# Entry
Amino acid sequence: MSITSFNPPVRTLMGPGPSDVHPRITSAMARPTIGHLDPAFVGMMDEVKQMLQYAFQTKNQLTIPVSAPGSAGMETTFVNLLERGDKAIVCQNGVFGGRMKENVERCGATPIMVEDEWGKPVDPQKVEDALKANPDAKLLAFVHAETSTGARSDADILCKLAHDHDTLTLVDTVTSLAGCELKVDEWGIDAIYSGTQKCLSCTPGISPVSFSERAVDVITKRNSKVQSWFLDTNLVMGYWGSNAKRAYHHTAPVNALYALHEALVILQEEGLENAWARHTNNHQALRAGLEAMGLAFVVDEAHRLPQLNSVTIPDGIDEAAVRSRLLNEFNLEIGAGLGTLAGRVWRIGLMGYSSRAENIFLCLSSLEAVLSDMGADVNTGVALEAAQAAMK
Amino acid sequence: MSITSFNPPVRTLMGPGPSDVHPRITSAMARPTIGHLDPAFVGMMDEVKQMLQYAFQTKNQLTIPVSAPGSAGMETTFVNLLERGDKAIVCQNGVFGGRMKENVERCGATPIMVEDEWGKPVDPQKVEDALKANPDAKLLAFVHAETSTGARSDADILCKLAHDHDTLTLVDTVTSLAGCELKVDEWGIDAIYSGTQKCLSCTPGISPVSFSERAVDVITKRNSKVQSWFLDTNLVMGYWGSNAKRAYHHTAPVNALYALHEALVILQEEGLENAWARHTNNHQALRAGLEAMGLAFVVDEAHRLPQLNSVTIPDGIDEAAVRSRLLNEFNLEIGAGLGTLAGRVWRIGLMGYSSRAENIFLCLSSLEAVLSDMGADVNTGVALEAAQAAMK
# Structure
């Protein structure tokens, strides 16, 4: 065996995540490792919590980064809130609603499914019907920004419906955090999780979560222990909580948290509302270019996420071959479809540091080059101009 | 709010982990992020698996890094092997045996406890008695290297006992991997987990695990789904397995895996047996210095881990004050006692890249400086010479 150091190719990441990581963030990640109980580290943890509260627009005390990817953040919210025998309403309009269902079942609870077509937002009327039919449901779970389709659901309205029925709300914001409007306290979200590798433009591996006081109250009054020791917020808060004494729970991923800290400093420098506006503006430019080329969007304009653009594939084109050529010839990654949309769409991300004019130009140029070379029925020579016009 | 970039102090890490991270590893971590399904990344994943098999001394196909810290690795082994109503024998001779008990209970299974004094190894006779008394036990779980005490148990003997009773073995090697002899296949370990931040000298946050064919067979034939979606090896192997098609499960912590890859390349360059020998030799040098100073070891020589040195605190000395001064005056971190040993011992790590002559000299010099300044009853002016003599 003689394996040598790994030097990755330098890519431009415009898939569904990870997105391009700002060089300030990878630099921060390479800073010297210190102990997870070092006073200097504990001070940094407090800053991370404070900046996460800003990013989520919440005053929730239980706002922390889980030491694992977004899927573990999802699991954190479910295993802490649900007990065996509970009932949960789960909305599914893409891959991640299905994953929520799996989480509910593995908690020994019963999922009540509210189904919507992939690419459509969650239908508030169906949710209201489900809430009425299931007054014993403990929570309503839905995905704010469906990464598998690019559809945005109206989290504000859905949360208000749930609260009208005295039901907790659990929301997936893996793709929305820092990429479009998200207001945890104003909307009344009780449990929320996200990821670092989308619109925060950080390296993958950490999942910010937040729980309202109402949710914390439910967790504190559980009859049974949380089934996951690692994700039990009662224990995690011994380390991340604001007590003077930080008790060892697990060894924090020190350098990954340096990276998250830097990503949040960058967000704070830009300003949350400015970040949202940048994502919207760059989406308009990419959209103008793609539509000029003749490509169509999967999601209706009213429910389209600016940070994740699902577009249909021209007739007769091998979509995987296009992605391979983009990667091999231009070091550009765009995403494939997932689940029922596999083979039918591309997912083009404009998330965080990837949401830049340079990336839009590269994407339109290289996509046009590959598609026209493959004989696709697309308009050539017009996309860049359309994008530039939309940027003004 | 005006939080700025975090620049950590530069420490020497000689606690129970994280250990000093080799600069090659932090540099690797800062390389450009690529997609978790990028062919270049998938190739790197195969190398990581291959090098983990070498580090564990196993041919197990299911040998992968879990995308979370060692505590999640522990949970991975328990939730995959246990179902509700199962029985598991758990040995406790320190903090981590207690955590194993928690894991068993949270799986809805019953722990049969085998207790030994903290600082002592697990007693094979007690284990044999427990195996005889519980022929229906599904597995025997124990900690190879107790990080809370510095005691090493005889994993080879314990595993053979378990197999004589047709019981699976589950072993915690968070602190032993790459620091002392560990042979998964030869000893017959069925499920094992470790951490990156100890003798691999990597950044914290990833947990290497491995399952034998016998264990995989048990997992495949489960009656119920694994209670954790995130840690379900049936699903994780869709991404990490050797199938041509890598299915998305969760977004891998790309940069953290660059770091692990580099740590494993360094281990391979040194050679596993050489790394074990280095840990032993450096332990002898540190030990000679500490004993010359007059400090005593907690664990009997025969069962002492070379990479984790628990020593008693001189009479009348405020142990926390000593650690604070070491940190503030010399940027040196050593560990406090945990659990029943809290306030009674220090834990001095010589793990991975921390296991170096330079660190031994710094530790002895600064400890002597602080202790003598605080009026402790220790011998001065003799520790360094004793350590140097032991190095020859």
User: Anything to note?
Assistant: Chain A touches chain B through 82 residues (CB under 8 Å). The mean pLDDT of chain A is 97. The first strand of chain A starts at residue 12 and ends at 14.
